[in-house]
Amino acid sequence: MKNYGYEVVDAIVEHFATQNGKLPVVSGSRKEMEALFLEDAPEKASDPRKVLNFVLDEVMTKSNIVSHPKSYSFVPGPSNYISAMADSLASGFNIFSGGWAASPAAAQMEITAMNWLLKMFGFPQKKGGGIFTSGGSMANLTALVTARKVKCGDDFSNAVIYLSDQAHSSNIKAIRVLGFRKEQIRIIPTDSEFKFSLNKLKNAIAKDRLEGLQPFCLIATAGTTNTGTVDPLSDIAKICKKEDIWFHIDGAYGGFAILAENGKQLLKGIGKADSLTVDPHKWFFQPYEIGCLLVKNHKWLKGTFTEKPEYLRDIEGNTSEINFYDHGIELTRRFRALKFYMSVKTFGMGEFRKAITYNVKLAEATEAFLRKSSNWEVISPATLAVINFRYNPIGNKLSEKKLDALNQRISKSVVDSKQALLVTTVLNGQVVLRMCLINPRTTLDDVKETIALCESFADEKITV
C-alpha cells in the first residue's frame, strides 16, 4: 500500500513540477475515447500498477490542464498541493462529514473555517452560519431553497424572483429545479457597464406588486463570469430591505477579491446580503470540488433542511452540536472543510491576499498592454481579473460580421494549436475574446506570448 501510494504522490508532484511546460489543451473524439475505455467490467483482478499506469497515461494526459498559466477560459482552477494532499487524507480515512456524532472534529473544523469566512465578508459570526457544498451551483440552489422557505413558506405560487441578464446560469438552473414557472422569473437587463439596472428593477417590482404577486428574492452578482462586473450591491440592498425581499449575492467568481487591495471598496455592500455564495475552488486556489454558502442566520438553514427520520434518532446531539446534513441538501457529505483549513493554516491568509492582488493587477497590466496596440480593442475593461477584447486593427474597417468571424477563428486557431485555452463570449452582440486571469502562475509574458499567437493567426486569416 505504501509503495502504491508513493507512486501516486510521485505522479502528482511530477505534474505540479512540469505542468507549466506542457500544452494546456487536449482533444479527443467520442470514437477515440471509446476505443480506449469501452469494455465490459472485468471479472478477474488486474495488476494494480498496470491499472494506475493506464490511468496516468490515458486519462490524466487527456484532460485540459486548468491550472496551466495559459489556461484563460471559463474560470481556471489553479489548485494547490497542500489541499490536494488534504483531499487524499479525507478520502483515505473516509471521514463522514454529515453529522456531529460521526465526526465531531470534522464538524468543528467546518464551523471554524466557516467563521473565518463569515468574518471575511462581514457576516455575524455568532448568529450567522453556512455550509460547504460541491460548488457554486449547489450553494446557489441551497440559498434559493432557504429563501423560498423563509419568505414564502409552503405556498410559492405567486412568488417572483429577480436576477440580471449577466447572472450565472446555475441560478436559472436552480430556479428551474425548484419548480418555478417561467412567468415567475424576471431577468432584468443590465446597463452599459453590464450592471443590474436599478430603475428597471424598481419598475419590475412595482408592476409585480400592483398585479398582486409576491417579490420574494433577488439575485445580485459579485463578479459576473462574462466580465467580472460587480452589481451595485449597496443600492440593491436598500431596495431589498425596503421591499422585504431576500437578498442573495452570487459571489462564486469574484467574492474572494475582498482580500485584494481595494477589494472591499469594489465589493462594498456584500455584507448586507441575506445569503452569499463563494467558491473556494475558483479564486481561493482549492482543488475541485468546494463551494460555500454563507447566511446571516444559521437557523434559516436548519429550519429549511432538518428532517428527523427514525434511523437518525440516536445520533441527535444537543443544540450546540451542528449536524451539517441539517443545513443543506446532502446527507452524505465528504470532508471538504479539511483542504480549506489546512491550506489556510499552512500558507497563511497573507499569501492568499498577495496572490489575489497579483491577479487583479495582472489583468490591469494586460489591459494597458492591449490599449497600446493598434490591433486590439478593449470591449470590457479589466474587472476582478477578467478582461474582454477583440482583434480590430485600426484602418481595416471590417464589418461587424467579419470582425465576429475573425475573432471566432482566432480563438479556434489558438485552441487548435493547443498552446493556450482562449475562447470567446458575446457582449452587446459582439464576439470577443475573454481572459480570466486568476492563476498566480500566469505572468504578463505568458499573456503577451498568447496575444502574439492570436496576432499570428489573425494575420493568416485576414488575408483570406
From TrEMBL:
Annotated SUPFAM superfamilies: PLP-dependent transferases (SSF53383)
Secretion signal, residue range per the UniProt entry: none
Alphabetical list of InterPro entries matching this protein: Aromatic_deC, PyrdxlP-dep_de-COase, PyrdxlP-dep_Trfase, PyrdxlP-dep_Trfase_major, PyrdxlP-dep_Trfase_small
Molecular function (Gene Ontology), one example: transaminase activity
Cofactor(s) the protein needs: pyridoxal 5'-phosphate
Record keywords, A-Z: Aminotransferase, Decarboxylase, Lyase, Pyridoxal phosphate, Transferase
Keyword Lyase: yes
Protein origin, superkingdom: Bacteria
Family: Belongs to the group II decarboxylase family.
Name of the protein this chain belongs to: Aminotransferase class V-fold PLP-dependent enzyme
Gene source species: Aequorivita iocasae
